[in-house]
Design a protein that fits this description.
heterodimer, A: about 190 residues, Immunoglobulin-like, 5-stranded mixed β-sheet, 5-stranded antiparallel β-sheet, about 25% helix, B: about 425 residues, alpha+beta, Aminopeptidase, 3 domains, 6-stranded mixed β-sheet
Chain lengths: ~190, ~425
Amino acid sequence: MNAKRAAVMAVTVVVAVGLLLLGMQMLFAGVDTGDHNTYTEQPSTIHAPAYANATNGHVALKVNAISDSSDPATANQWIKANGQAGVYAFALAPPPGYKYLIANITVSNVQQTSSPFKYTSLLVVAQDGRTYYANYAVCTGICAGDVLKNRTLSANFTGDLYVLFSVPATAEVVKLVYASSPPIEMALL
Amino acid sequence: MRHTTTRYVVVALLGILLISLILPLLDGLDAFGYANERTYLIIFQDNSEIRNTGGIMACMGLLTVYHGSVTSLQVFYANSTYLNGTVKVDGPESLTKFFNVTSARLFDSNVQYNFSSFAPVVQANLYNLTGKRVDGTVAVDFTAVQELMKLTGPMIVSGDVITSENVVDRLHYYSSISQGEKSPLTDLLHALALDIIGDVRGSSLPAKLAFLTTAQQLMKEGHLQFYLPGNSLLQSFESAQKRPAGDFISIIDANLGSAKADFGVNRTVSDDVTIFADGSTISNLTITYINHCWWQYNVFSTVLVPPGAELIAVRNSTRAFEGPLITNGTGFSAFSAHLGVLAGSTASVTYVYKLPKNVHGNGIGNHYDLYFEKQAGINEYTLNTTVELPQGSTVIKTENVGVNQTSMEDIHAQVIYT
């Protein structure tokens, strides 16, 4: 009798543990483990109004335009620059639920010597404070070598860069930030 | 006496239950190196450049684990001397006949129709070329890396912030500038792999369960594939092709030098099936490619259908169409063709074929089952199916028959009728 009871208990425990694990797995399927970077402004941040020139003493940046890649004119500019850049061909087909924003930025070296510049330090900030780092950038001529490959701007360099950001389809971006030291924050609205 | 017998039976059953729980657990612990050091071949497949087993093999790695910890991870670039050796290719026939090839470089050798057929071959080839023996193989594609990073959150690698949104493009960029032995791509994949493993190990129980759920989903979608011979616990995770009886369609595409195009190409599969009163069945299968890229998409497409299927007609609206080549293998017939889809345009190929009678099942009423197998590495596709029954038939049940079914997994369509 005791053995029977023990068997029933053992089976009950195994089934209960199984159900508990299954339940926890279902419960935690959508656990938010922190895929979101939220923008925190640093005290040293340099601010620039929309579409104005801004510098951190090394590089100067100016956002000329930022638009959705579904806009034919934007797509054409991208395709032209991408075709000439000689790196990898990037299809303007955002994943489901996302859109591609393309920023046209003029980048200048304000130093008489070469300055480091990483387009991967460019990010856009959405209205809810979430940040989206650059996916890819294209530009042509000397810019392709300096900005894309060497990540260094030669003395007195100036060039136009197209930087692509993948953001949720519903996101509205309000700032473009160059996360340098000190950072440059450029308003977009 | 009867009481004692019952007791023995109960104890025996408990013993069997305990052993059945403990043995797989021991196997599981063994896989993580608790008994002996274990080394696995990790294949990083770039699924934006689709190949038979899920994507071009951008890099390969050797991961060694001991007592549940990673003791070493080496990542090799596709073009490195390590992976550049030539290996024999003796199938599938569709490929060897169409391209008249008998060999390929190791990193270009994932030509089998599925990962479970390829994994033992690549393990043997790796051993022949390098002398390295591995205990199993894991294939991870770029979509899997992206999905896992949704759980880990951003990571900083070589000063760059890598997020789930930009990781695939960072990998592509580094792939495009990589050459020779040491490449920024291998550095990035090495760092990401160790960071992801570290995050999983160090995470809370809820986060671990979230990782497990994501991993299971990625396995169902063919973005994460395992081949672990002899491990009873992990065998359930293996990506073996278990094809049930019935009609099936498996489309295996290989991108032919069209760069990172496949994330910009949408696929729609339309299958119109007509079942006649004498039991014969005609399938009218159309594969439509919508190329959103600004360059031409070239693909070698193979359709696997039930063995004995008889091709009646082929129509195509693609560019540079070559084929079809009809070949047969164990458990399938294959129709293969090389086709091109112009930049920003849509093109399709249609195969009309007669199915063998053994695709129909019996039971209560007549059964027609169609299993559509999604190729590993493909993110999403649309399936349209129609089934026309013999005149006078009555439908009892239909499942997944209809248009615009968008899926990231296999689909089983069914019609039961009298």
